[in-house]
Amino acid sequence: MKKYFLLFLMLLVFSNILLYSQSSFTNFGSGTENDPYQLWTKEHLIELTDSVYNDFYDLNQCWHCNKYFRLMQNIDSVTYAIGFGSFKPAYFHGGGYTITADSSVKIISPPFISVGPLFSSIGGCIDSLTLNGNIVIGFEAIGLSGIFRSVGILGTVSNCTNNVDALYSGIAYLNYGTIINCINNGNVASAGITIQNNYKVISCINTGTIFNTVSTATVGGIVSSANNGHDCISNCINLGSVTGGGSVGGIIGSLSGGGTGSPVCLVSICFNYGYIIGNVGVGGILGMIISAYFKHNISISNCINTGVVEGNSNVGAIVGQEGP
Fold this sequence. Notes:
Blueprint: H1 2-22, E1 37-39, H2 42-57, E2 68-71, E3 75-78, E4 91-101, E5 106-107, E6 119-122, E7 125-133, E8 136-137, E9 141-142, E10 148-151, E11 156-158, E12 161-162, E13 172-175, E14 178-180, E15 183-184, E16 194-197, E17 200-202, E18 205-206, E19 210-212, E20 219-220, E21 223-226, E22 233-234, E23 237-238, E24 242-244, E25 248-249, E26 252-255, E27 265-268, E28 271-272, E29 276-277, E30 280-283, E31 286-289, E32 298-301, E33 304-305, E34 309-310, E35 313-316, E36 319-322
Parallel strand pairs: 1-2, 2-4, 3-4, 4-7, 5-8, 6-10, 7-11, 7-12, 10-13, 11-14, 12-15, 13-16, 14-17, 15-18, 16-21, 17-22, 18-23, 19-24, 20-25, 21-26, 22-27, 23-28, 24-29, 25-30, 26-31, 27-32, 28-33, 29-34, 30-35, 31-36
Antiparallel strand pairs: 8-9
């Protein structure tokens, strides 16, 4: 009897998988906050990619805008980037599940090869998603960043974890929105969280190794370069070693404020425990303030460095160099 019951369960699971793979995700949910579209399979992710791609090139429509999507289980062997073009104001909840990229194939955004990561550009909200695997993008080149290429002005990325190696950064290549409670465990060449921050990075952690010996490379444990913005970078921790050929910081490689009347860029309650080594402008928290003129709109407070910091000149436990 037990054998037949187990066989029944196996058939039930198989039939559900077959049902999900053959059905559109629009058959599961209505796209509202209380009843989001349910994404069960790799095919559902591909279908979402096609929808976002079509919206990007048809300026008269945005089917996915203001809709809610929810990942319902771990999905393996993903071979397509999601949302090439722009994942516009919409909501993708990862449900705490993991998407694993197939290391044997390129992630390709139809109909041509993309240079973007899992999500190309977002203007909406992405939450509670983990990325595993070894992403290969384009012509055998490793991805720009682990999960996102660009976070738009109104975009929010929260509770996401990157576990793959990437060319530049672990979470986002460019950030114009808010990245909060995210973790990078991948090895990257510029920054654990984002290569360029133009707004907010809050409560993020890097454990990956960051290594880039190009003489002009600006490298940071959390952010490579940051511009002025409210609550710029706060409550962040770097645990990985950071090595660069230019200005290097345990949290930020280089930082610039703004002119008169611009918002103050606040760097607060950040901690570096990693080994930091660079050339000129090397700091446990911040490698270089780009211009002394702009430093009046920069505030660094309640930050702690316990890591070893080494460089050829302008080396500091907190800030390495204030620019000319």
